[in-house]
Amino acid sequence: MELREIEIFLVLAEELHFGRTADRLHVTPARVSQAVKKQERALGAELFKRTSRSVQLTSIGVQLKEGLSTGYQQIQESLAAAAAAGRTFTGELRVGYSAAWCGNLVVTAADTFRTRHPHSTIRFLNFQMDDPLTPLRDGNCDLQLTELPIDEPDIVNGPVLFTEPRALMVPAAQPFAERSTVSLEDLAEVPLIAVTNQPQYFLDLHYPHRTPSGRTIPRGPSATAWQDVLALVGAGKGVSPTSLRAARYYSRPDIVYVPFRDAPPVQYGLTWPASGNTPHVRAFVQAMLDAGGPLQPPGPAAGAK
């Protein structure tokens, strides 16, 4: 006797009415009748006395009900316990981020996640901007919040959580520092400091070689870490694009953040290994989505003209 057939028998034994049994189980009365007849044929005994006015258990039906009830209840309790365990994650989840403002959102989401899954722990990982994919690929990170695009066959792109206006970091003594905005065409007039070791499609978007009209953008020194970019710009070696929010986190007297008036915003989204698309990861993704509200768009920031 299959589990569904046991369920039909036990509900009918309780209700003693084919219609009410069908309603409780969301099936038709005919389905209930077919199941009972199948059970009776298999057992070689009548389980119910049926008339046009009533349905009653036979003595064998009573005996079967008593024997099945305890076992069925145990099965239901075991299934419920397994489902609850599946929703309650344990162990450590390693969550990476690139920019400091991404880290703020990750920490906020972690509070939500730990409330929902108190037996889990979160380890935060801050990665250098020149190596965003290796930690995911070598198993040292379960998911991360980072600048997009990421277009790799072994990496899953989750939702874009927020976007930020793009700005240009310029030396405080550079003429651009006196402007209220800059244009992508202005990049042809100054050396551009870029980060190395990123995928080419990422570099083409964030550190282009030509302006929209086709003018060549000169290259300045390259950098492998964010602090190197700040040092090079502050020393007057060139300019570098970033999120306008960076002005709040990395205000320096030798650097000014000037908003672009015609550049696309910087997108930030979640990524994780295709081989690690686990319920644990998906639960944290949901926590990130739920925690997205506190991250407000940047207003006027220190050092921005």
Automatic annotation (TrEMBL):
Pfam entry (one): HTH_1
Domain HTH lysR-type: 1-58
Keyword Transcription regulation among record annotations: yes
Superkingdom of this protein's organism: Bacteria
Gene3D superfamilies cross-referenced by the UniProt entry: Periplasmic binding protein-like II (3.40.190.10), Winged helix-like DNA-binding domain superfamily/Winged helix DNA-binding domain (1.10.10.10)
Keywords recorded for this protein, A-Z: DNA-binding, Transcription, Transcription regulation
Matching InterPro entries: LysR_HTH_N, LysR_subst-bd, WH-like_DNA-bd_sf, WH_DNA-bd_sf
PANTHER family: HCA OPERON TRANSCRIPTIONAL ACTIVATOR HCAR (PTHR30346:SF0), TRANSCRIPTIONAL DUAL REGULATOR HCAR-RELATED (PTHR30346)
Family under the similarity heading: Belongs to the LysR transcriptional regulatory family.
Name by which UniProt lists this protein: LysR family transcriptional regulator
Organism of origin: Streptomyces kunmingensis
Classification of source organism: Bacteria, Bacillati, Actinomycetota, Actinomycetes, Kitasatosporales
